[in-house]
Amino acid sequence: MIEEVVAIPSVDKERWIKHYNSRHRILLVGEGDFSFSACLAVAFGCASNIIATSLDSEEFLKNNYPHAASNIEKLKSRGCEVIHGIDATKMANSKLLEPHKFNRIIFNFPLAGFFKNKSRQDEIRLHKQLVTTFMKNAKEMVSENGEIHISHKTTEYHKDWDLESLVSSHALRLIDAVKFNHREYLGYSCKYGFGSNKYFNCNRSLTYKFGLETNVRADRQSLL
Question: pLDDT value at position 135?
């Protein structure tokens, strides 16, 4: 099936970086210092196809991440829309994101928080709740043949989140899971989040690609 590309302002040349190109309408959520968004924007040259969002305020980010201000400037100067205060678990109802449909929705290394006084089981339950609620919202915002991407560690603790099992209740399906190599995203610096500028080691990670389950059924019927 040929992927529908949501209409965006024209760019001179289609440019790719890994799974993303300059003609995709892209939504990024849960950004920290905006270094991943900035990486895409620089690779594309023009970032009018990108909406980059954070849960935290711009003031909070600039106070806690030394490179947040320069990354946000890279985005805005290339035509990217930067929006703060976007909750990934409620974004489908955000007036600031209407009426867009996106070819790619990206949430890198989702984390519900740090829970010192909770058991491992309770921690994982909260992380899984974040992911599943995000997926429920993203499903309403992704284009018919678009993809929802979650990059996630594959260590034992993170495997227990069992991302693949979380999507079935939302009529989504796993398209692929490919190795995530942060070195392929020049300028990207993964952080622990929640105001911590400490580097997060994202080695041994995968990018999980999810799509609408309805497309699988349509493909199967076309073969009958």
Answer: 93
